[in-house]
Amino acid sequence: MALYDLFDLDTKFGQYPAQTGEASITAGDFLKPTGSTEATTSNYNSSNLISVSMCDANGDEAYVCGIAMQDQATSGGNISVGTKGIFLLQANEAITAGTQVCQIAAAASMKVIPAEAGGRQLGIALTSCDAQDEYVLVLFQLGPTGAEA
């Protein structure tokens, strides 16, 4: 589970609707675009936007587009999605500062691992951790998948 964006400085985020029928999204969940559009009314005009859903199945780690910045229990309701910034993320194994990280390829896991293990680069670990379930600061800035790196 990602915790919080620690610094507002240069943080980037957008508003997207949660996919219709999507189970609750929790702040800190990794999100993916659904590939479908949902009609939504937000602070702007009514328009068709690409909706988002949790990265909760094997293979979803290649499609991470951001981190949920808030809880959203309403199907189709708008949710803020962080796409750049410094976040505190839970590690699935030891990570060394300076290492590229990606989401672990496991259903419903919101943990990160070193990117050399594959997956889409989510950013650079700014701190180290020694074991599973510890936390690392990550400069979250999406990069290519492991196959493209």
Write the layout of secondary structure elements.
Layout: E1 12-17, E2 30-40, E3 47-54, E4 66-68, E5 78-90, E6 100-103, E7 112-114, E8 121-125, E9 135-141
Antiparallel strand pairs: 1-5, 2-3, 2-4, 4-5, 5-9, 6-7, 6-8, 8-9
User: Care to count the β-strands?
Assistant: 9
Main sheet overview: 9 strands, antiparallel
Q: Which radius of gyration do the C-alpha atoms yield?
A: 15 Å
Low-confidence stretches: 1-5, 37-46
Structure, explained:
The protein is an all-beta fold. It has two domains: 12-82; 85-141, no CATH class. Helix content is 0%, strand content 40%. The chain contains no helices and nine strands. The protein has strands at residues 12-17, 30-40, 47-54, 66-68, 78-90, 100-103, 112-114, 121-125, 135-141. Strands 1, 2, 3, 4, 5, 6, 7, 8 and 9 form a nine-stranded antiparallel β-sheet that branches. It is globular, with a radius of gyration of 15 Å. Residues 1-5 and 37-46 have low confidence and may be disordered.
Key words describing this protein structure:
149 residues; 2 domains; 0% helix; single chain; 40% strand; mainly beta
Entry summary:
The protein is an all-beta fold and 149 residues long. The chain has no helices and nine strands.
